[in-house]
Amino acid sequence: MAFDGIVTANLVYELNRAILNARISKIAQPEKDELLLTLKSPNGQRRLAVSASASLPFLYLTNENKQSPMTAPNFCMLLRKHIANGRITKISQPSLERIIQFEIEHLDDLGDLCHKLFIVELMGKHSNIIFCKEDFTIIDSIKHISANVSSVREVLPGRTYFIPETTQKQNPKETSQETFYQAVYAKPESISKAIYSSYTGISPMMANEICCRAGIDGDFSTYSLSEEEKLHLFHHFQWLMADVKEANFHPNILYKEKEPIEFSPFHLTEFEDYREEPYESISEVLETYYASRNSYARIRQKSADLRRIVSTALERNRKKYALQLKQLKDTEKREKHRVYGELLNTYGYGLSEGAKQLEALNYYTNEMVTIPLDPKLSAAENAKKYFDKYGKLKRAFEALSKLIEETKGEIDHLESILASLDIAAEEEDLTQIREELMDFGFIRKKSGSKKAKIKSKPFHYISSDGFHMYVGKNNYQNDELTFKFATGNDWWFHAKGMPGSHVIVKTEGEELPDRTFEEAGKLAGYYSKGRENDKVEIDYLQKKNVKKPNKSAPGFVVYYTNYSLTIQPDISDIKQI
Fold first, then answer.
1. pLDDT tens for residues 437-448?
2. Which of helix, strand or coil describes residue 87?
């Protein structure tokens, strides 16, 4: 979800309860566009993290500290000079804008009481942190915006601060039925877009949520609504705004398995398929969400080069595989050439000179066949020609069959590496995948380079019945778990017919309960290519029945007797250690 005006309203409500009248004891600037204020109040010490990053602006309370540069930047030094030890006397949000204004009381150099404004604008690429006098004259800002950059508003020392009105949006907390009808239903566009383009602080997702609560498809045109539906939608809009005004917030994060998808100050009815996890505060939501998303984004970025290498090799091998299958299909005629040669040797003695074909009985099928002939050649020479074609196609068939098996093995291997990249959770997990790509020639090894120290370990879970379950993160870990870590009576699980992790359940000589079998199956399904499917079929058997073919790629096994179960790959209720 975007950091919209409703999230900001929840945050202002929380800040007023937590840090109003707190004193600013420390000011740090750990990043170019980020501040960290340490605040002391009767409720204890808290830190306020503020970022004006164009890609990820945020503001929330946290207990975490960040390392700052040895020499503080100019903006940080300015804030220290003016408001160090100042007291926050007011925290407000104009209209439902994505803006938070802090009024700070402090003593100047002469000991006189002064007031300053610390304004945080959380507006995507236009985000900024602006420091003003009491009369809104700008003292400085973390980003300077000149007339060359923006024709709407300059943000420079000495200029007057104001909120630009570029879209003529209305305050949703003060709307009436008449103004709602005029603002929304008069626009010839989708209902959702009409809402968020008419009112300040409402994101597209929240506009869709209002439509969803009213039982209306937000993608439909405003002109498609009946009078009853128009009134129903307006009432849901009003009820949501009433929750904002009364601070009836319920902060939560929506998860798709373990990945955070959205966050919101309210329960979102349009995302019923996702798991909702409630939190005590919106600050905790923002800190958790941004940390998780940063982690996913960082791993995606770090793995991009490996993913590109694997995808390129995979595409090349798939093209090669398709060509080899086509060539193999062309060799299906080989038996026909052999039969033609044999029939010519059998019936060719009565063939007239210059004949262009021979009608003969195929004694293999008891059917008459017509054999094309080269009129310049005798029957024996035509037979030899067919036998030569048969021999050539037979050799091609044998060679292609072997090549196709090798190419298919390489495709399976690359798909398993791609699956490993999908489940990599930390940078250390990528090291072992890189080693595998180098070992198999997909990445060139640098001369004299030492083998990287592997710190990555398999995932470790514990079942509801107390059994330890281990999941390999890549092919090398799969081999290690199955053939070195597991003992004969431990149970082995794997998604059927698709790339995925080996899952080992340590039995310690005990019988596994049905619930543990199901949970181990869920892990095998989740850590496989089928994790997005509603159902995944899982093969499971005791480890002693799993064999590794000679010269096979890491992670590849064979087995001939197994049990099967079908599960939903949801591991949200399984405890990870």
1. 998 888 887 766
2. strand
Cα torsion at 295, 299, 304, 307 (round to 10°)? -130
The tokens for 446 are: 């640098």
pTM for this structure? 0.64
pLDDT recorded at residue 124 = 87
- Residue 554 CA to residue 551 CA, distance in Å, equals 9
What is the average pLDDT across 76-83? 95
Nearest to 269 by CA among 280, 254, 281, 282: 254
Nearest C-alpha neighbor of 11 from the set 260, 243, 204, 286: 286
pLDDT at 168: 78
Of 460, 469, 509, 475, nearest to 489 by C-alpha is 509
533: left (phi over 0), alpha (psi -120 to 50) or beta: beta
565 falls in which pLDDT band (50, 70, 90)?
very high
> Are the C-beta atoms of residues 249 and 282 closer than 8 Å to each other?
yes
> Quick check: 167 pLDDT over 80?
no
In tens, the pLDDT along 294-350 reads 777 677 777 888 999 999 999 999 999 999 999 999 898 899 999 999 999 988 887
Please state, in angstroms and rounded to a whole number, the distance separating the CA atoms of residues 288 and 496: 35
CB 377 within 8 A of CB 351: no
pLDDT at 305: 87
Q: How confident is the model at residue 111 (pLDDT cuts 50, 70, 90)?
A: confident
CB 390 within 8 A of CB 341: yes
Helix (H) / strand (E) containing 192: helix 191-196
Residues 519, 574: contact at Cβ < 8 Å? yes
Neighbours of 305 (CB within 10 A): 12
Could you give the dihedral angle defined by the CA atoms of residues 122, 125, 130 and 134, in that order, rounded to the nearest 10 degrees? -60
Residue listed under structure tokens 């508003």: 153
Alpha-carbon gap, residue 42 to 529, rounded angstroms: 52
Of 331, 281, 230, 376, whose CA–CA distance to 59 is shortest? 281
Q: How far apart, in Å, are the Cα atoms of 387 and each of 166, 336, 395?
A: 83, 10, 12
Output b/e per residue, 198-230; b: 16+ Cβ within 10 A.
bbbbbbbbbbbbbbbbbebebeeebeebeeeeb
